[in-house]
User: Fold this.
Amino acid sequence: MPCHRYDHPGSRREFLSKAGAGFGAVALSALAGKNLMASSGPPNPVAAKIPHALGKAKNVIWLFMEGGPSHLDLFDPKPLLNKLAGQSLPDSFERPVTAMGEVNSPLLASKRQWAQHGESGLWISDWLPNHSKIADELCVIRSCVSDGINHAGGVCQMNTGSVFGGRPSLGSWISYGLGSENRSLPGFVVIKDSNSMVVNGTRCWGSGFIPAVHQGVLFENDDQPVANLNNPKGVTESRQRQKLDFLNRLNKKHLLGRESNTDLDARIRSYELAFRMQAEAPEAIDLDSEPEAIKSLYGLDHKDTQIYGRQCLMARRLVERGVRFIQLYHGAGSKWDSHSKMESNHTRLCGNVDQPIVGLITDLKQRGLLDETLVIWGGEFGRTPMSEKGDGRDHNPTGFTMWMAGGGVKGGQTIGATDELGLYATEDKMHVHDIHATVMAMLGLDHTEVVYMHKGRPERVDLNEGHAHEGIVAGV
Assistant:
């Protein structure tokens, strides 16, 4: 089933009036050196598609803080929390089910210093001092809600919409709905900050039941992001091409009669993509070619910020080359989890990402890319106001913070609210399904129309439960 609606003209005059604007594409195609004739082979499932509407965003960079950063200590100040610190949660609050099962734990004060920044007066804590420079670009969503009480369920739902594995990731849905603008690079790229694996592993960027060609491609965050990218010594491009053609003939012969197995088709296409990447990817991932001022902007000249700085700079270079969806994991292996020693944990982690994130937003803006690049920050949930182990906080999926910037987002505003202690979302709740629907809308996709038929059932990214939040969009 196609994921877009098509309007069929009722007359030749109507056809010409609608098609006329597209004639310019013929000349453009000739200038770009692209062939307008149909391919003799099967259609490319990741070819660029026309969205339902004119979305302001063309690409997405998702800054995923795995483990659950504390909204109470970063973007959602709660004076009452410090006033009642050491006491039990007031009787007026419903007792939550906590991941670690602690009961009647005392409230834990936030040691942060808070200030308002930018013309908008956005509240940001001293754990993220550089964020003051981009305050007016951020739309802070304080009322996020998830169903995942533990990391496995939380990370899975934030990526796929479900706490149970097996569904396509958001990046895969976007690849399915929009395709890729660069046939020589993956349309969906994932980069981790360490050798540790993200909770749930490759399911976080898997394609579930939609064709496997839409799954994310993992880049490593080191000097060789793409393994085995270069030919072995002594192997020429011509010889590599001959080997690939031979493999493709065998694979296509094996595919006959097995067309329903999308893994086979994805494997064939991955060989072709890998061959094309050997020509384009080395230039795309060459961070050494960047001016020293840009490297410094991202924090590549400091040990604490170098790793995430490389990820953010890589994301900007990939966006410039048409990669549709890029997911940057920080704290892979749930390192933002802070059941104890929150001060040392978050101090270190915030120090790792503060400058690189601000560098990314600043660089995108100065290059004219921020208007068409949607940047998202957040984890799988937040933290509780109650303490755990005396100096930490437990998981909190019932009210936490994320932010969006660029891609048509109305910056310098706060959406929603939590209660006086930051435990429950109380105003303008945004469930994960709503977040996914909003991201799709920013890209010009109607999430109710991006459909994949699976076992006779029309499947959508939001499990038919999400709504796009119009207030996030600039001008609304």
Observations:
- The longest strand covers residues 138-145.
- The CA atoms of residues 410 and 474 lie 4 Å apart.
